Every structure is written in C-alpha cells, then in structure tokens.
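Look over this record as teaching material.
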Amino acid sequence: MTDIAVDRYAIYFFPDPQSLLARLGQDWLGRSVEAATDEGQPSLEFGPGLPSDIWREVTAMPRTYGFHATLKAPFRLAAGESRETLEQAATKLASGLVPFALPPLQVTALGGFLALCLGEPSIEMDVLADRCVMDLDRFRAPLTAAERSKRRPERLTVRQREHLDRWGYPYAGEDFFFHMTLTGSLPEEVRDKVAPILQHLMAPLGQTTHRVDRLSLFYQSRPGAPFVMVRQFPFQRESE
C-alpha cells in the first residue's frame, strides 16, 4: 500500500510583503511567512498588559500557519499532481484576475479567536475565494477519515458538511468569511485582555483599504511544521 503523503499546500491571501498589513501581522505573530523556523520572538512592543510568555501562548497556533487569509485550505496533493502542475494552474488563474481594494480591517472576536475581519462586505474577495476553491480542486487529495474528523463535522451545519465533503473545507461558497487569524482559541478573560491591545496595534489597518493583487502558495513539510510561503502569483489583468 502506498503511504499517504503528509506534506500539504494551501492557497492564501498574503499581501505585498512591504505593506503595512504584512508588517503588522507578521510582527504580531513573531514570524515571517518566508521563514522555515518558528522562533516565537515578538517584534512589537505590547506594553505592560501582555507579558511575553502570554503572548507566546496566545499566538502559538496562528504562528504555525503564518499570517494569512485562507482562500483554499491546506490539502495534500492528489495522485498524479505535483508542485509544478499546481504552480502552473495558479499562474494561469492569477493571470486572469484583476487587482482590487480590500475594505479596511478591524480586530474581531470569532468565538474564542481574535482575527482581522472586513469592516464591510467584499464581493471581489468572495469571488476570488470561490475561484481558488473550485478552479484548483483537482489538485486536492480526498480527505481521509481522520482529516474529516478534525473538522468536527458534528458541529457544522448541513451546508457546511456538504462543503466539507465536496471541497475539503466547510467554509466555502456561501459560508466563506474573510479573516486573518491573530490568536488561538482563548478563554474569555484572556481574550478580553488581549483584544484591546490588538485593537490598538492594528488600528491603522482600519483607516485604509488594502491591495489584493496576488495569490500566495504556502507549504507545510510535515504535521506541526510551520507553513512557509514558497511563491506568489501576481494578478495580470488590468481593470476595465
């Protein structure tokens, strides 16, 4: 029997690395998305309200995945596909896309998590996520029973379970919501302490739009290893 591959790829939104959005997100998590190691070293001054050991704990989960917004969730490559064929398809997809402005972002509580979310809807981002999920799905190996179980299908809606079985991810289509995760799941008392610190640090992101002009390919070499950005694919079409 052929062993199941353990390395995974994902298509994420990650902005221009020189942008304010990229700098603030990576500084908060303490890791560049291009770094293959997770050193967990803060790059921002948090003030007296957040000791470094607490910061390291609340950011551990998103630091592994790297600062990003999910477009096509992590997947193992389907049989017969390779990184080369995936990159070719992502290049082709991006070549037909038009850059657009993402609305201002704000720190939002998503259950126990804190994330950067849109201050207003973005049809362009919804369409982009749909294109990535659907157009690149032939590269995704089917979920194993263990992978499906990790998504806690018993907690999902009927439609989300349908998305999980069809696309390997419950938050596709109508259930997609743009978010850039900043913390792991936190107890309420910890979340209430961290939220105002993040709101202060990320306040500049709520005062401007953010350019979306590329797709990013991330790679994880083994379970638990940091996801690393290995290539970006610029949008090629001009707005009409």
